[in-house]
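Students often ask why inverse folding is considered easier than folding. One informal answer: many sequences map to the same fold, so there is more than one right answer. In these notes we will look at a single instance of the problem. The structure comes first.
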């Protein structure tokens, strides 16, 4: 009898979790679309500074660039190195009953706080890379988070990579920037049927950490900058374990940036800049192989079931991409995948019990789709956004209008690591896309990099 009651309780919990999960993913995706749009718009704004030639540098430009690069290398000054210390107080976005007060303490969980320590590097001032990419910087960071609810949520620690750049220069000592963070967080207290049953938002001890922030950078001296701005954070496990509603926060950041080797010329006295070499427009080809695992929620009539099994996902993307400039690519992608959870079904079952789910024939778990892709390109990283439909498929589960958000991390000139996530109809989570990629016919300039 006790086992039957627990089964009914779990069924209700999982049904409620699936609904909450869908609502949260709609909000998250809309926020990510807005963020990507801002990134692309910022690339247009900052990419138009300076004069652009119609051709690549002539021999004298190449010699000048080579001399500058050798000087920087010989003196150990090719990059500017920096260390950041930040605090980020924030508010939890309470879109889940657990956060609103349906928890062990019967009170809302409202606030968050985090402390960050980061290292990053950037190109020297007035180099081609600095001017083309808006003084972009990249590095690694570690953060400690607390939500004033250690027993039910934990106090996680996040390890992440990050990148940022200038959107607009307001004055000689003040500029407006963006930054993204991506990594893993550990130290969570996830849902447990017996010991932590109220926590219906976090199902894993390790979760993805995603953050974006916009801030004003105030140059205090040659060695120090002050950063103040707003920040948006998301934690979840990418649909690899239930529950996965995730945790979202909105807040503020204040940080002090220390520059180890920034020179006085970092703020040029002259407003004259030599022309930026024109970009050789061309078509490159990305081939990506990916795999992951996922969980599945199934609706049978009015009943919803969160299945306990993990299902394998394998796939590929082949994308011809037209390189329009230093910071933007666009193209189409042929997307094929195998989803081991697609079109699973159940035969007759007793209401109030967990039915036995069966796998269909292989052809009902394969699909081929076409998607449009745009890509925001920066040194070492690029952000890819896609929307498409499956054109060859069998079964209702694969009749999808899907969306893809991916980060590509450069390994060599012709290879990269691919970390992506796919949604269906802007609300239903599909799967992670963890893989490797190869780029063919890559004519992207590499001067002063």
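Output (designed amino acids):
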């Amino acid at each position: 009898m006790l086992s039957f009651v627990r089964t009914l309780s779990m069924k209700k919990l999982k049904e409620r979790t699936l609904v909450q999960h869908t609502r949260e993913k709609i909000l998250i995706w809309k926020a990510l679309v807005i963020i990507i749009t801002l990134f692309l718009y910022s690339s247009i704004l900052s990419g138009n500074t300076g004069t652009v030639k119609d051709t690549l540098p002539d021999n004298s430009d190449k010699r000048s660039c080579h001399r500058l690069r050798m000087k920087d290398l010989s003196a150990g000054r090719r990059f500017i190195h920096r260390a950041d210390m930040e605090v980020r107080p924030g508010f939890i976005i309470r879109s889940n009953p657990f956060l609103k007060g349906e928890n062990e303490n019967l009170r809302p969980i409202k606030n968050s706080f985090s402390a960050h320590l980061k290292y990053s590097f950037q190109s020297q001032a007035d180099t081609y890379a600095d001017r083309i990419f808006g003084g972009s910087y990249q590095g690694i960071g570690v953060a400690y988070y607390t939500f004033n609810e250690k027993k039910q949520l934990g106090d996680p620690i996040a390890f992440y990579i990050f990148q940022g750049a200038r959107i607009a220069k307001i004055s000689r000592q003040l500029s407006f920037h963006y930054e993204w963070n991506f990594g893993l967080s550990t130290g969570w207290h996830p849902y447990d049927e017996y010991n932590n049953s109220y926590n219906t938002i976090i199902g894993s001890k390790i979760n993805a950490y995603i953050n974006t922030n916009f801030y004003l950078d105030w140059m205090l001296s040659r060695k120090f900058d002050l950063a103040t701005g707003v920040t948006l954070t998301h934690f979840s496990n990418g649909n690899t374990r239930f529950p996965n509603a995730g945790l979202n926060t909105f807040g503020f950041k204040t940080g002090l940036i220390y520059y180890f080797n920034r020179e006085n010329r970092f703020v040029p006295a002259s407003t004259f800049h030599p022309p930026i070499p024109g970009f050789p427009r061309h078509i490159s080809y990305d081939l990506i192989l990916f795999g992951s695992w996922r969980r599945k929620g199934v609706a049978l009539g009015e009943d919803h079931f969160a299945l306990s099994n993990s299902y394998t996902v394998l796939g590929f993307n082949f994308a011809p991409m037209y390189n329009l400039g230093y910071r933007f690519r666009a193209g189409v992608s042929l997307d094929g995948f195998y989803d081991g959870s697609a079109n699973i079904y159940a035969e007759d079952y007793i209401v109030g019990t967990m039915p036995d789910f069966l796998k269909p024939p292989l052809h009902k778990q394969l699909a081929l789709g076409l998607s449009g892709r745009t890509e925001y390109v920066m040194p070492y990283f690029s952000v890819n956004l896609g929307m498409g439909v499956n054109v060859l498929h069998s079964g209702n589960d694969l009749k999808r209008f899907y969306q893809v958000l991916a980060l590509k991390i450069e390994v060599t000139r012709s290879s990269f690591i691919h970390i992506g996530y796919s949604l269906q109809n802007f609300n239903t989570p599909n799967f992670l896309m963890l893989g490797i990629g190869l780029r063919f016919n890559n004519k992207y300039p590499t001067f002063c990099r």
